[in-house]
Amino acid sequence: MRASVTLTADKVTKFFGSRAHRHAAVSEVDLTVTDVSRIGLVGESGSGKSTLGRMLVGLEVPSEGAVYLDGQRLDVLLRFRGQRAEVRRTVQYIAQDTTSSFDPRRTLLDSVMQPLLHLFGLPRTTARARALETIESLGLPPAMAERYPRYVSGGQRQRFAIARALVVEPKILVCDEVVSALDVSVQGAILNLLKRACLERGAGLVFVSHGLPATGFVCDELAVMHRGQIVERGGSADVLTDPRHEYTRGLVRAHETRRPVGAGTAVLP
Amino acid sequence: MSASTVTVPAVGAPARDRTDRTGWWKVVPFVVIALVAVVGPFLLPYDPTRVVASASVPPGGDHWFGTDSAGLDVFSRVVAATRLNLLIAGLVTVLATLIGALVGILIGMNESRRGPLGLAARGLSRLVDLADAVPAIVLGLVVISFFGATAPTIVVCLAVILSPIQIRLIRTEVLRVRAEAYLDAARIAGVGEARLTFRHVMPNSVSAAWENTSVVFAVSIIVTAALGFVGVGMPPPTPEWGAMLSRGAPDAVAGRWWSATFPAAALALAVGAFALAASEVLRRRRR
Amino acid sequence: MPLPSRPDRRPPSGPAAYRSGTVVLLGVLPLLLVACAGSDGSGGSAGSPSSTGDVLVEAVAAVPGGLAFDSKPGGYEAFEYTLLTGATLIRNPYVQAEDDPNALTQDLYDFEGVLAESYDVSEDGLTYTFHLREGVLSQAGNPFDADDVLYSYERKWNSTSIAPAISLPAITDPATQLRKIDDHTVSWTVAEAGHGFPLLAVISKISGEIYDKELLEEHATAADPYAVEWSNTNGNFGFGPYVMTDYQDGQQISFEANPEYPLGEPAIKRIIQRVVPDAANRAQLLRAGDVDVAVQLRAADVAAMTGTEGLQTFSVDTNNFAWAFMQTRTPPFDDPLVRQAVFYAIPYEQIIEQVYGGRANPVVGLLNPEAPHHVADGLLEQEYDPQRSLGLLEQAGVPTPVPYTITVSNAVPDMEAIAVQIQSFAGDAGFDVDIEVLPPAAFQEQALTKTFQMRLYRDMSVSYESPPYSLLLAFPEDNEERNSTSWEDPRFYEAVAAGVAAGDALSPEAAVHWNRAELVWQEGRAQIQMAKVQPLMVFREGLKGFAHRTDNVIDFSIVEPGS
Hints:
Oligomer: heterotrimer
Number of strands of chain C: 24
Shape of chain C: globular
Structural class of chain A: alpha/beta
CATH class of the domain at 320-533 in chain C: Alpha Beta
Helix content of chain A: 25-40%
Strand order of the largest sheet of chain A: 6-7-8-3-9-10
Order of helices and strands of chain A: EEEHEEHHEHHHEHEHEEHH
Shape of chain A: globular
Distance between the termini of chain A: 33 Å
Number of strands of chain A: 10
Distance between the termini of chain C: 94 Å
Structural class of chain C: alpha+beta
Strand content of chain A: 15-25%
Largest interface: B-C, 55 and 53 residues
CATH architecture of the domain at 320-533 in chain C: Roll
CATH topology of the domain at 320-533 in chain C: Dipeptide-binding Protein, domain 3
Helix content of chain C: 25-40%
């Protein structure tokens, strides 16, 4: 399939901390994703994968290097409202933290409608209808959408988060540890949902995770991050069955107890 | 796959609060006091600012609460003072919470930024700490001696002096809210920073300050009274509980207890009634 | 099993009512504090010795602002300190008071020697020669002689002392008026015979304190040539009946009797002045028997203690006036008719009854009515007469009610009480009164800048018995700053001058002129005296020797433990 949208990270570095004691969370990373990619960013905590993911959507600004969307610098595009809206319609993001990913004072429906109101300027009735459509397509009962976030389970909230991201029909979706905090029995359902939704809508996927089998299931490609750098990348199956970098090997070994997975296999043990 | 229902059972709607009906009586004492404040001054037996009898008459007979050392009727003054004390305390609470919201959000949103905005926010934070470190009464004394003791001056002065309580609370909440994921989600949804601050950060940060209003109300009544106690209250013979306490305290030492005790009791009742009512109102809001 | 939903921000139930309870408790705290105030006193500690003839404990409001009169500390404590540790050449003898069997009072028209043994007057009445006592030692052990006298007056006139201002008209320049005849003789010369009595009246008071020249010269510096600052912080630089032995700032001062005192060592051997800032607490300590003497009490408390077993209050007539001063440069008191109307708008009896519990006397005229040959013709008695006031206001042509503001200091609570009384009764007399309470510094400032309309305060005229002194005290000629009312009438000064020119200030001839001056003063009405307050100090039973003095402090050198 031909890519129509390209998101490129060009030698991006991100420092955290004061000038005296700074630490590179991401160090000179090159990465390109498109609307046909299904790439997983894996690594342990602190490897920089989340930061990289946030830089890709413009929630963090690189300290060195830059991110380009279709050849234009992302930070420049985000500076102006009109172009910012365009960026956001194209690249969406789902955060890890389910407990605070929704404003507790708004209904779930309100939150799902929000991007439609702000990025498309749709009138409320239209936005409402479209939001409900997306919500239903993800298998959620419309009545549940009128509830407040604290009255639904973590898994349900994550589905709503996916709905909120997909409602604008983005070309690229960056997901940050979206199932890590969920119960194992729920993870599989969410992953299936995600994979299918992206396929149906023709959206590219960047899947940030520390869980190897899950990532391998969802993504075609894997990029392994360690201490801020990508140490190995390649097709999922290849990386998992024949890891080259020592770190990757360690990672795979740590997941040895699980069956090696390939596309189409359910994740649940 | 079809849009089948989710197999995970949903958490049901919240159970009905069992104490729903029985808490309403808690609001009554304050409502009564508020009524006294509004209607009281029209029903006084004596003019609260005029000498109506001999000095230091004990309670009983014509003067239910006796007269003070100047010959003013204590009952009329205690009732008349309700309006002033409550008004001041109410205005101070509202103003202090407003200032708390604005300044708290300003500081909380900007203090970890680089550049001049961050510097200004951190500077403002230090200023607030300074204002908090100086005891309220001392600050009040200085400011009011400067500007004169009128009701508006006292309100503004106390609101500024007591606002650090709310500022600090709201700032802490803002720092917490800033880390919440829904802010990023809002940004991703195209919401601008300013709108983000007012539509998402502010509403989620001020609830703690709301719950704290009873404390601010109590403190402002007490500090107004204390200022009257140290002699920078409203000009005599304006009926105000603190000033009445101040003038009556030496008499109490000598055994003429009534001119200080009744205003003290009124003070305690007002503070307690407000706290009780506030706790009930806020409990309902939380559900 | 579903993950728990996000924790509510609901505080644990229970504390809601608990919190209200805590707040109520906090509100009740003032009540408790008031109730416990009696037992709280920075001075009422356990084990305080009561006077057994050896030690006397006095509850005072504060330590003196300074220990040197010339440094202008002012106030009760400073005056009492000067009297305790200082001595003058002469003083007024004490006589039994006519209106109180338990009290003495000064005979203001007689003098007896302290540091001087005796004095003579020259034929022309212009020179007073003082024969100084021999063999007197200062508190520091230096011998007393004429040099000390001359030095003292040199210092008074070369420092910031108020002595020069209050010594008028008798003393204008000690350098020429005071002369050393020999080591134990000095003479004062006055410009006219009419200044003679005023001279004696002024040098017999605390402003006439004589200092230890040798001691002060030891501590003089270039910046402080008369050791005023040194003496202000060290004390004990005179010849008085007591020596300060211990000074704990803000807490207490201890004194011991001086065996070298010319009039003999006092009966009370040790005095402890204990600082108890609150007047009600001082009264309470006295009631409880923790102190022997309490001073500067509230009139209401003294009234309540009158007739109480174990305590003595004194009702002798004093010169402690409650004054109302009016600013005559600005409306509404720039019109003398309005000022005269105010005279009838003040509820004098109410004030005496309610504010002072009956412990105050009405006042007639500015001068001491006890003076020999005193002429009282034409002097008005105090009267609250609202009709008269309204009539005068109509005559003045001003619209009623006339609004004005009374200013008082928050340091003197009875003034505020008087203001409230005046306010309540002002309406019927055509006035509308507001009250402004200021801290003492601001209150003083207003007097200097003349930004008041009416101000109330209590004050005494220390050389009350000297007519020119009393007449000129508030209206010094050509002294803009000290004339707070800005009232000046050439006829007034002419009458005063004529009285002085009559020679003997206490003669019938002079008395005619004093009366004229008083009448001009009455017509001008820039001042109103509202009452003479009876003594605000109380002794425990068993102490003898309370004397009323024109400086209104206690002379402990004559106090004795009695039966």
